Amino acid sequence: MKHIEEIAHTADWAIRVRAPDVPQLFEAAAEGMFGLLTDLSTIVPEQHHDIRLHAIDVETLLVDWLNELLYLAEQHGLAFTRFTIRELDLSGGSRLLALASGGRPRELNKAIKAATFSGLSIRQDSNGYQVDLVFDV
Known about the structure:
Blueprint: E1 3-7, E2 13-19, H1 22-37, E3 47-55, H2 58-76, E4 79-89, E5 94-103, E6 114-115, E7 123-125, E8 128-136
Antiparallel strand pairs: 1-2, 2-8, 3-5, 4-5, 6-8, 7-8
């Protein structure tokens, strides 16, 4: 089961994300990020974007994923609400193929400049995976 919660941070926004596996962790991280920006229940997901990324490790891939979504959202005036990880290969470098769907938000609470590497570490325990994400605002 995915779980997203906002956590206190001195200067920026931060969330803690939990999920049973890494693909769902990536989906939940994206959902949590856009959930900070707007009420996702008001958005009709009518635009779809395929995303292909490569990175040196899973943490870098996660930050690249979130920053690519922010870039696409800003370019197209969207907030993404649905995320489907089609392929996530973590062997010998990291590769992601995904679909993000979204629509125009009524309003944005704030702007996120970027997902950061601040304190970033994907951890595994008996309940699955967890990551704390800090966003530069």
